[in-house]
Design goal:
The protein is of the alpha/beta class and 342 residues long. The chain has one domain: Glycosidases (TIM Barrel). The protein has ten helices and ten strands. It starts with 6 loop residues before the first strand and ends with a helix. The structure holds zinc ion (ZN). The site of zinc ion has 6 residues, from loops.
Length: 342
């Protein structure tokens, strides 16, 4: 990893017109001073789509996106919008707006609306439905245009509803092949047609057996086989939020030719350990420069209070050893990791 141009990324879910002003303040007063240079904005179906208003279930407008992008540009921050593709089309059995508007795209329409984990995680769209890509590309295209983005994150973590026995198109098919097809279709649009860089979460590409990862951080159903059937110009964001004995996926992805951004959450010591171990593995591979940096992810609901809290915290607010609540610790991790990468 080249220290001077390391990726220092921050991820958050954001889709609210009402919170655009505090969000802009958060970018200017927290993220930019900390040296964050990539901002992954997960807007999903909260974006106000003009071509597909039936998909919109939030309030983030095209104008909001442009204003946020302008603030980021002024501070040298690359904006990478995120729209969850394939999986995470709702929560539990409850469909999101996309599957409500187009129930024919649902991979598992037979699952009850009130299904809950551990019976069912969440819905996916069917990667073989002949009309899904046209819709997905419209949505991704609108978001890219609104943020004037040169990269797009397609999500694709935790996809468990795939190759369902009752899907007339996918029944009996290899999960790895279906997952690769979905990735390659999106790559065809984003990279080949639109000329933007493609990012995705890496958990479904980790072979749980080979890496020792659990079923969340790794795959136990066969999607990992897609790794040898997808382009290596996709940036893989490999997330591990708790300290592990080892993180072998970093070396595996680098050796296969991918660029990787290890991604942590709020736990400071876990993040520091993961970064240190990633750097060690990068040095052992022939292409250490493809370990791009690190991303700090956040999974709390951001509201005015949370943005303001961060604006008022400083590097000296906490010691490294102190026990903290999630938001305080997230701030400390952001502070520590950006310093480690500078
Ligand atoms: Zn299907």
């Amino acid at each position: 990893m080249k220290k001077t141009d390391s990726v220092k990324a921050f991820h958050l879910r954001f889709g609210s017109h009402q919170l655009v002003e505090p969000f802009k303040q958060f970018i200017e007063k927290v993220l930019a001073p900390k040296g964050i240079n990539q901002l992954i904005i997960e807007c999903n179906t909260s974006f106000v789509f003009e071509k597909h208003p039936e998909i919109t279930e939030g309030t983030l407008t095209k104008q909001d996106a442009r204003e946020i992008a302008d603030v980021c540009k002024r501070h040298g921050i690359r904006v990478i919008p995120l729209f969850q593709c394939l999986g995470h089309q709702g929560w539990g059995g409850a469909p999101n707006s996309l599957l409500k508007a187009y129930p024919e795209f649902d991979e598992t329409p037979h699952i009850p609306l009130d299904a809950k984990w551990p019976d069912f995680f969440c819905r996916s769209w069917c990667p073989l439905h002949p009309e899904i890509n046209a819709l997905a590309f419209d949505l991704l295209g609108e978001i890219i245009d609104a943020f004037d983005a040169d990269a797009m994150h397609v999500g694709m973590d935790e996809v468990y509803a795939l190759a369902d026995d009752q899907c007339p198109r996918c029944k009996g098919k290899e999960r790895g092949e279906l997952f690769a097809k979905a990735i390659n279709d999106l790559h065809g649009y984003l990279v080949k047609e639109r000329g933007v860089q493609m990012y995705m979460w890496a958990d479904r590409l980790n072979d749980s057996e080979a890496t020792g990862y659990n079923r969340w951080e790794g795959d136990t159903f066969g999607t990992h086989k897609a790794i040898s059937a997808i382009p290596t110009d996709i940036v893989l964001m490999d997330w591990h939020y708790d300290p592990l004995d080892s993180y072998p996926s970093i070396g595996i992805f680098l050796e296969k030719g991918f660029s990787v951004i290890p991604s942590c959450w709020y736990k400071t010591e876990a993040a520091v350990d993961f970064l240190k171990e990633s750097k060690r593995q990068a040095v052992e591979t022939s292409e250490p420069d493809r370990l791009l940096g690190m991303a700090v992810t956040s999974w709390n609901g951001w509201n005015q209070e949370a943005f303001e809290k961060f604006i008022h915290l400083t590097s000296s607010s906490f010691t490294r050893e102190e026990e903290l609540g999630e938001l305080d610790e997230l701030y400390r991790t952001l502070d520590v990791i950006t310093k480690e990468l500078s």
